[in-house]
Design the sequence.
């Protein structure tokens, strides 16, 4: 057993962290909070140039051919920097769906462009008043000749205004389909709304949108199976992201607790506060091992049907709880826009509620443990 | 990064597992004894320790010149995890605390007298640090050791000496130099447990077993049985704790309780409906299984840190592991009783109880886990100061 990074892994971490410290400063993150586009071109270009956008894409298609473990190390850094980028939707989820089930032609068209940052793809998944599961997909895909005709509504589609293609999860007679749809196609209408984590989200209406069957990813009716599989990789990375965010939030709080004096003592000398921080650090460090174990197992070709949901469940709850106690330690200033604590506080809850929330993840774990 | 044991480590783990299956003995291994199963407190369990010795599994990490094999501590970790998984007595105080301290600081005489006995499982020890006024604040021991001709005369009291009622030798901290600063006035002694002037009084607990108070009335200890240098007692105690991370708190009993609970929930019914279909039960199981995986991660983390050659003692990793795991341990028992519903109240050992009351008993037996061996609060103090660098003010 050893938990050390290889030299190459350490290089990826250092390189990513260095770049983000320069290009994803708090000022940049704040600036993006109200921006309907939501990511800065400079940062996005840096990520492409350093190979981060193509990290998981095979080398033959312009990527770095790395495993989920290297990606997890990068995601911890993205979380730490609160990096405002469409990396997850495009380079992890969309690229993952294409790699898992896309045709050769689809892969050759999109994966190199995702890797070099020229194209952003984003899944259009969730629907109003519907759940995270397969049953939540109701958007209608009616076959008509060689086409599907889409009607229905998607919500919370991140970075949709910048997308070259949406990957729409739609329901046909066969089941769930994954369809590549141009957001500028006739009958597609985007409207922007704000989210708690200030990722730009869009509501998208589909009114009789025609999509050729050749733009379907994978066999008819196989869409949910593909999506579920790629999500299991994705949530490991979000768990890493949560870990990075929580660790930075705690580190800034520790620093403050050493400086701020009340009753002639630094706050950190009050044991009730010190113990909050000790608990948070224990959960953060424990969660990180779980992320690494999940990612390592995936890289070793083993099943992560239990590890992946456990990692997101634990690390997102840890991030949320860490931001709660840290806000407590900062006192009143944590509540103000001026201080950065609120940025972690909102992002932590947003992340916990996104891409499968606590009850959904608990059920995945329970099913794996109890029903097998 | 690698989460698997090396092939050699795995081979050893398999070998131990197979040996334990072949040597299964309900007299020796009993899960209902929970944490007390680690003690070799009956003739059968002492015979079992002799068998472990015959396997050459005692003192594996000791230097070769003292009869050890000089192999990595991870093998002792693997062994103790396997032993505790089977609820068998564990290698502990003798091989760990006492053996390792004697090797580093003991006189030739003490080494020759005790080390072979430890390797052959011919001796059981009791450890006496705690006193009425010295709990978490272990350096506050008051047991008086007065210098007299040829030795020391001990008077006072110890609290919480587990094993005192069956051990052969007593490893005791006492104050030899009351005028020196608290941490520099303590010394360590070895005393035969049946020594005149030692009075052992049983202190029953709500767990399965008893611990003890021990009273000292003019107990004479010859100079030869002072361990190491006078006044270095507390430093040796701290060092032994740091040296002995591998075998301190095993995860297997907790992981095993989670497994037992899951297996039970899979088959149990209430009002003829499978219990596992209850959404609250499913959520609870998911949380426990997840936290158990995190506990295993923290265990892996401290084992890796301890193995790092030339590294510092993994104090922080060990504190985080102990804090998280003992809290989880209690929660697993609590949740198991909640899932059992009212039948959880049926006391252990009766067939009417779910799992013959395994969790009713465990709920009581684990109560002390967050206190003994350094309480949760003490672990948090360590993490706050040494890991986070917060001020030392408590
Ligand atoms: C069954 C059993 C077996 C034992 N076996 C042995 C044995 O074999 N040998 C041996 O030497 N000892 C043994 N002990 C003693 C054990 O190590 C002590 O109980 C433990 O160290 C705590 O001390 P205490 O019980 O005096 O509690 P105290 O130290 O009085 O603590 C009481 C409470 O105060 C808290 N507290 C104390 N100091 C601080 C602080 N600085 N900051 C915040 N909170 C604090 C503690 O966390 C705890 O919650 C055993 C105890 C039991 C119950």
Sequence:
């Amino acid at each position: 057993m050893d938990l050390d990074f290889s030299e190459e892994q350490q290089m990826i971490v250092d390189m990513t962290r260095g770049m983000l410290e320069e290009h994803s400063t708090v000022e940049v993150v704040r600036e993006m909070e109200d921006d309907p586009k939501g990511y800065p071109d400079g940062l996005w270009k840096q990520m492409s140039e350093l190979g981060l956008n193509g990290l998981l894409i095979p080398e033959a298609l312009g990527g770095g051919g790395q495993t989920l473990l290297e990606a997890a190390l990068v995601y911890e850094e993205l979380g730490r920097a609160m990096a405002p980028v469409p990396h997850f939707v495009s380079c992890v989820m969309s690229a993952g769906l294409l790699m898992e089930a896309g045709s050769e032609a689809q892969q050759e068209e999109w994966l190199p462009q995702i890797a070099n940052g020229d194209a952003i793809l984003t899944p259009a998944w969730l629907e109003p008043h519907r759940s995270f599961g397969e049953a939540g997909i109701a958007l209608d895909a009616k076959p008509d000749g060689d086409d599907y005709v889409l009607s229905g509504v998607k919500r919370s589609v991140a970075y949709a205004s910048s997308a070259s293609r949406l990957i729409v999860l739609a329901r046909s007679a066969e089941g769930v389909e994954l369809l590549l749809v141009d957001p500028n196609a006739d009958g597609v209408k985007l409207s922007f709304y704000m989210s708690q984590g200030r990722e730009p989200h869009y509501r998208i209406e589909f009114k009789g949108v025609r999509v050729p069957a050749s733009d379907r990813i994978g066999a008819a009716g196989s869409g949910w199976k593909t999506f579920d599989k790629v999500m299991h990789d994705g949530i490991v990375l979000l768990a890493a992201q949560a870990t990075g965010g929580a660790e930075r939030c705690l580190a800034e709080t520790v620093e403050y607790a050493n400086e701020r004096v009340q009753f002639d003592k630094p706050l950190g000398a009050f044991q009730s506060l010190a113990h909050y921080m000790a608990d948070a650090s224990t959960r953060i460090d424990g969660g990180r091992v779980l992320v690494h174990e999940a990612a390592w197992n995936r890289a070793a070709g083993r099943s992560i049907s239990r590890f992946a949901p456990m990692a997101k469940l634990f690390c997102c709850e840890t991030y949320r709880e860490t931001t709660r106690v840290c806000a407590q330690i900062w006192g009143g200033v944590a509540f103000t826009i001026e201080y950065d604590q609120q940025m972690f506080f909102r992002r932590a809850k947003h992340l916990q509620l996104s891409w499968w929330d606590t009850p959904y993840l608990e059920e995945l774990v329970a099913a794996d443990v109890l029903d097998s | 990064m690698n989460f698997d044991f090396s092939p050699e480590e795995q081979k050893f783990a398999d070998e131990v597992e197979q040996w334990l299956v072949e040597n299964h003995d309900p007299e020796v291994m009993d899960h209902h004894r929970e944490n007390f199963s680690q003690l070799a407190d009956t003739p059968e369990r002492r015979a079992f320790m002799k068998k472990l010795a015959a396997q050459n599994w005692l003192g594996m990490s000791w230097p070769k010149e003292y009869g050890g094999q000089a192999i990595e501590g991870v093998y002792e970790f693997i062994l103790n995890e396997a032993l505790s998984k089977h609820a068998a007595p564990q290698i502990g105080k003798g091989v760990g605390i006492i053996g390792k301290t004697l090797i580093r600081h003991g006189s030739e005489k003490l080494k020759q007298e005790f080390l072979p006995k430890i390797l052959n499982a011919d001796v059981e020890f009791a450890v006496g640090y705690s006193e009425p006024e010295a709990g978490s604040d272990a350096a506050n021991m008051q047991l008086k050791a007065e210098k007299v001709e040829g030795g020391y005369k001990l008077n006072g009291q110890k609290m919480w000496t587990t094993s005192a009622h069956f051990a052969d030798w007593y490893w005791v901290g006492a104050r030899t130099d009351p005028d020196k600063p608290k941490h520099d006035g303590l010394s360590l002694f070895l005393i035969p447990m049946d020594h005149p002037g030692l009075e052992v009084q049983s202190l029953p607990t709500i767990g399965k077993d008893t611990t003890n108070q021990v009273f000292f009335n003019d107990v004479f200890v010859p100079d030869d049985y002072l361990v190491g240098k006078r006044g270095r007692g507390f430093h040796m105690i701290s060092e032994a704790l740091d040296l002995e991370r591998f075998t301190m708190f095993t995860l297997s009993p907790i992981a095993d309780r989670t497994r037992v609970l899951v297996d039970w929930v899979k088959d149990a019914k209430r009002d003829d409906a499978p219990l596992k279909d209850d959404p609250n039960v499913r959520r609870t199981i998911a949380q426990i299984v997840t936290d158990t995986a995190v506990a295993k991660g923290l265990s892996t983390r401290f084992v890796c840190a301890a193995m790092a050659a030339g590294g510092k003692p993994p104090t922080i990793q060990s504190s985080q592991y102990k804090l998280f795991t003992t809290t989880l341990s209690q929660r697993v028992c609590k949740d198991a009783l909640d899932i059992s519903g009212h039948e959880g109240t049926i006391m252990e050992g009766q067939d009417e109880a779910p799992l013959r009351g395994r969790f009713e008993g465990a709920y009581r037996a684990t109560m002390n886990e967050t206190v003994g061996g350094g309480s949760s609060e003490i672990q948090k103090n360590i993490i706050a100061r040494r890991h986070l660098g917060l001020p030392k003010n408590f």
Chain A touches chain B through 51 residues (CB under 8 Å). The domain at 224-371 of chain A is CATH 1.20.140.10 (Butyryl-CoA Dehydrogenase, subunit A; domain 3). The longest helix of chain A spans residues 223-259.
